[in-house]
């Protein structure tokens, strides 16, 4: 690999692109299962190299799955029907139930959207970047906008993926439930967009990493992979991110908004766990292996790579190396808490649905994620548990 | 291979910004943004020893500050961890080349005005709500009318903008501006007023009154009260009167005008007063009905009608929330309320059944006309 010094001597746009290539290569070289690599490579190319999410143009992701019709209406799944009924009863109206007249000032520490003490100010100072008070206020405002923009982009992905999952799921009760999730995701997209537009006024582009995962999910033809990616991985990521933000934010409207969203997300993960536990019990060992490996790679992507490069480009490009920024942001109090919450929720679910065999456990052990095994899975957790985080 | 060429070109060109500044979409409806906005102080102008003007510009350049002459904005000022809300009138009139400004007098007991004058400098940012207020003067280029402006002290602030916009937008209209101050060095906008008078001559007549005039003073001597206003106007019968200044002066002038047969609807006043909490608030929840929408909400004990309405998602207007600006004025068509005093409602508004939703508490069932 080219050293940082060589990159620093290049024109900055080219250096940035080369770093993106390195990022993509890093992902490619660490994926051990070649079939998983083949599955992920086109999405990595579109996300990291072509940067399709950042072109300012609509992106078309061709879906390639079957809509599963059953005119016999078989596949009785009472537990899933129960979940559907609960979802119907707990629908909420973001326009009426949230107080949109709340004055939001992201720089007011008393009601901070994102508390200043969780920003990586010390890490930045260690690299000679000291933000004055006014800059600190702008930084936490921008970071809040970036974070919530990624939540919103993820919800757009969740909206379409849940629609696909509803088409392709095999149980009638799953289709009933899936329709409620489509409505949930639309509402989540609505409230995040409204919050960003009316309260913060700034939208960030989709993170390459998030784009890559959504692209892989949307194009995969296998219904259970969509389920695994959407209901377990992305929803797990969402629970980690939303739960952490819910805990730390002092802004009452956002806190209330997240409370509603988290209650929905808890149901979504529960749905994925129910569906996949039953389905995975019927797969061959090689099919299960492939899913284990895919999940592990996505888990690593989620652990290592939400590094706010959009913020780096806006604030610190030219002032510090991107590799240094990666270290700073990765070790920030917020991201540390986010990763803990995410994997505390995710790993027990992987165990429960049967893709955490002793073989893959060694891989998780290697990256320090087995510590989260043995916890309560989604079928054992209530929304209150998730809010308590 | 245009795709490949674009891809390679992309390697050597600066990437587009990773973010986009966004204004609220129309889909969120006509609900006004109640969120405060940041305004940068572009310039501070010392008008008199105790009065300063603050020229403002929006921090978000994509969202210009839209206001009408005579309106005010509410500043949210943090002092020792407490946010104070204070209304200040615009002292400029909107125009392509005009910069929005507010003018603040340092009141002896005014904690916020003193704080502003002591700490705010050019380049600082202030937090403010959107412009509000109905102390405005819609203009009609075809109109030909006489408008009298009576200003006491810093009360000239909204009136100067109103006079400028009237005389600019209505070429056939005339105005009389009466300004009362204690001494000559306290006359606010002295040069600006003189320049306006010269620019539109002979359509503007300016008369200054001083409580303690210097030797050789040719203007009005004494407090600008009702009698002196009538005397200064002579036989002139104006189409509208705009009055702003200390409470006693406004009462005196309004009484004098009423005594001279001026219809109340021709007299417009602007008051900023800040209500304290009413001593005996209703102790029971009460139903409030908003007649236009038919919505019924329950106001909890201690909750204002404004809070109860907003909590229920009713888009009520408001600005200062302290009884000072009148933005939350609603008409009560039934029931009783307890209202914190003092506030800026005029006697006529009270007689007509108006209340300020931000400092009124339902005492039993109340019906609000409209909304």
Explain what the structure shows.
The complex is a heterodimer of chains A (389) and B (371). With 389 residues, chain A is mainly alpha-helical. Chain A is 68% helix and 1% strand. Chain A has 17 helices and one strand. Chain A has helices spanning 4-8, 12-30, 34-49, 78-89, 94-97, 121-126, 133-168, 172-200, 208-219, 223-248, 252-280, 285-304, 309-315, 322-330, 333-353, 358-366, 383-388; one strand at 202-204. Helices cover 21% and strands 31% of the residues of chain B. Chain B has eight helices and 18 strands. In chain B, a hairpin with a 2-residue loop joins strand 2 and strand 3 (51-58). The longest helix of chain B is centred in the middle third of the chain and has 14 residues, at 156-169. The model of chain B has no long low-confidence stretch (mean pLDDT 86). Classes of the chains: A mainly alpha (389), B alpha/beta (371). Chains A and B meet through helix 2, helix 7, helix 8, strand 1 and helix 13 of A and helix 1 and strand 1 of B. Strand 1 of chain A pairs antiparallel with strand 1 (19-21) of chain B, so a sheet runs across the interface.
């Amino acid at each position: 690999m080219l050293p940082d010094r060589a990159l620093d001597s290049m024109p900055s746009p080219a250096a940035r692109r080369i770093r993106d290539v390195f990022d993509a290569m890093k992902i490619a070289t660490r994926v051990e299962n070649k079939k998983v690599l083949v599955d992920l490579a086109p999405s990595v190319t579109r996300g990291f190299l072509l940067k399709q999410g950042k072109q300012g143009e609509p992106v078309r992701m061709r879906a390639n799955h079957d809509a599963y019709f059953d005119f016999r209406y078989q596949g009785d799944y009472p537990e899933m029907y129960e979940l559907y009924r609960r979802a119907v009863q707990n629908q909420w109206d973001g326009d009426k139930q949230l107080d949109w007249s709340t004055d939001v000032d992201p720089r007011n520490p008393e009601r901070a959207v994102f508390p200043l003490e969780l920003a990586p100010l010390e890490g930045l100072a260690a690299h000679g970047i000291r933000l004055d008070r006014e800059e600190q206020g702008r930084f936490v405002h921008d970071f809040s906008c970036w974070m919530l923009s990624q939540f919103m982009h993820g919800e757009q992905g969740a909206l379409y993926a849940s629609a696909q999952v509803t088409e392709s799921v095999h149980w009638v009760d799953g289709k009933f439930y899936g329709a409620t999730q489509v409505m949930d995701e639309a509402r989540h997209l609505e409230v995040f967009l409204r919050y960003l537009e009316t309260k913060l006024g700034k939208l960030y582009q989709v993170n390459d990493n998030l784009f890559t995962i959504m692209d892989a999910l949307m194009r995969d033809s296998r219904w259970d992979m969509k389920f695994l990616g959407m209901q377990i991985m992305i929803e797990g990521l969402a629970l980690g991110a939303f739960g952490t933000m819910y805990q730390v934010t002092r802004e009452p409207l956002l806190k209330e908004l997240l409370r509603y969203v988290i209650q929905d997300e808890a149901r979504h993960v529960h749905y994925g766990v129910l569906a996949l536990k039953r389905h995975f019990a019927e797969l061959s060992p090689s099919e299960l292996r492939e899913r284990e490996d895919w999940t592990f790679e996505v888990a690593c992507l989620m652990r290592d790579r939400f590094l706010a490069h959009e913020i780096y480009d806006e604030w610190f490009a030219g002032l510090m190396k991107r590799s240094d920024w990666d270290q700073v942001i990765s070790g920030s109090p917020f991201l540390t808490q986010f990763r803990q919450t995410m994997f505390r929720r995710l790993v027990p679910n992987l165990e429960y649905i049967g893709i955490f065999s002793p073989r893959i456990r060694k891989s998780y052990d290697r990256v320090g994620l087995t510590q989260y095994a043995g916890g309560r899975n989604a079928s054992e957790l209530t929304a209150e548990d998730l809010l308590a985080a | 291979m245009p795709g490949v060429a674009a891809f390679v070109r992309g390697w050597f060109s600066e990437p587009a910004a990773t973010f986009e500044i966004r204004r609220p979409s129309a889909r969120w409806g006509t609900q006004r943004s109640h969120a405060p906005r940041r305004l940068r102080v572009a310039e501070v102008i010392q008008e008199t020893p105790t009065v300063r003007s603050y020229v403002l510009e929006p921090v978000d350049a994509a969202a210009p500050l839209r206001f009408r002459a005579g309106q005010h904005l509410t500043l949210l000022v943090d002092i020792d961890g407490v946010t104070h809300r204070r209304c200040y009138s615009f002292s400029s009139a909107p125009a392509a080349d005009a910069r929005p400004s507010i003018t603040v007098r340092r009141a002896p007991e005014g904690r916020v005005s003193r704080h502003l004058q002591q700490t705010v400098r050019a380049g600082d940012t202030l937090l403010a709500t959107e412009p509000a207020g109905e102390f405005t003067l819609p203009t009609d280029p075809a109109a030909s009318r006489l408008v009298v402006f009576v200003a006491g002290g810093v009360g000239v602030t909204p009136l100067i903008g109103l006079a400028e916009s009237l005389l600019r937008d209505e070429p056939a209209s005339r105005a009389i501006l009466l300004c009362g101050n204690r001494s000559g060095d306290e006359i606010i906008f002295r040069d600006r007023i003189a320049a306006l008078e010269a620019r539109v001559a002979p359509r503007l007549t300016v008369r200054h009154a001083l409580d303690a005039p210097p030797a050789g003073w040719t203007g009005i001597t004494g407090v600008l009260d009702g009698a002196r206003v009538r005397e200064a106007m002579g036989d002139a019968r104006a189409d509208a009167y705009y009055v702003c200044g200390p409470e006693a002066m406004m009462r005196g002038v309004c009484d004098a005008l009423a005594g001279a047969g001026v219809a109340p609807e021709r007299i417009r006043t602007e008051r900023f007063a800040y209500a304290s909490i009413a001593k005996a608030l209703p102790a029971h929840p009460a139903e409030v009905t908003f007649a236009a929408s038919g919505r019924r909400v329950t106001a909890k004990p201690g909750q204002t009608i404004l809070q109860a309405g907003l909590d229920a998602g009713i888009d009520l207007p408001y600005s200062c929330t302290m009884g000072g600006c009148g933005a939350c004025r609603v008409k009560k068509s039934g029931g009783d309320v307890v209202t914190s005093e003092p506030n800026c409602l005029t006697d006529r508004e009270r007689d007509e059944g108006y209340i300020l939703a931000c400092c009124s508490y339902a005492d039993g069932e109340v019906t609000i006309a409209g909304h």
